[in-house]
Amino acid sequence: MPRFVAFLRAVNLGGRTVKMDRLRALFEELGFSNVKTFIASGNVIFESRSRSTEKLEGAIEKRLKEALGFDVATFVRSEAEIRAVEAHQPFSKSDISAPKHSLYVAFLRQEPDSHCAKALFDRRSDFDDFHVNGREVYWLCRGRFSESPTSSNELERILKCSATVRNTTTVRKLIALHFGES
């Protein structure tokens, strides 16, 4: 059966706390199997007969809204898609591995249009660099993410769509633990 990862935006922020066992139960109520969570930041691995990430996103968002009482933007990727995210190397290894540098990936619902992508590229600086690859934006921070002149909310405004951001270390660990080494 196909396996997927749902990246949930801000499920445990702003004073809200959803326990991971509750989150797993909600996914199981949707008929998904082999549901697992990875760290408490809203990463859910599951199997589904459906192959449409768009339909999965809609069903998950609807169920979470009903059960939790607030909107939870959901970004679903298939196993092949998440492995492709991990494999994509938009920046040099030396830039990524430099002290205090870190690489993040923003998961989007759809590929940003060329005007939005250009607006994002105009935000490049000595601190931040961006690369768009399909429905993902790779974000290189040359310092602490919290000190970036660009916030996650600003990224969404620039791209004119919802997004959720994960450190690529988290993505690699998720793949290694739940999909086996790539």
Task: Give an overview in words.
By secondary structure, the chain is of the alpha+beta class. The longest helix is centred in the first third of the chain and has 16 residues, at 53-68. It folds into 2 domains: 3-81, SP0830-like domains (Alpha-Beta Plaits); 83-178, Alpha-Beta Plaits. Helix 3 crosses helix 7 (168-178). It is globular and about 45 Å long. It starts with a strand and ends with a helix. The chain is built from 7 helices and 8 strands, in the order E-H-E-E-H-E-H-H-E-H-E-E-H-E-H.
Which terms summarize this structure?
single chain, 182 residues, alpha+beta, Alpha-Beta Plaits, 2 domains, 4-stranded antiparallel β-sheet, 8 strands, 37% helix, globular
Largest sheet: 4 strands, antiparallel
Main-sheet strand order equals: 2-3-1-4
Distance between the termini: 19 Å
Helical proportion, percent range: 25-40%
What is the tally of beta strands?
Answer: 8
SS-derived structural category:
alpha+beta
Contiguous low-pLDDT stretches (5 residues minimum) are none
SS summary, helix count: 7
Approximate shape? globular
Structure described in brief:
The protein is an alpha+beta fold and about 180 residues long. It is about 35% helix and about 25% strand. The chain folds into two domains: about 5-80, SP0830-like domains (Alpha-Beta Plaits, 2-Layer Sandwich); about 85-180, 2-Layer Sandwich (Alpha-Beta Plaits), CATH 3.30.70.
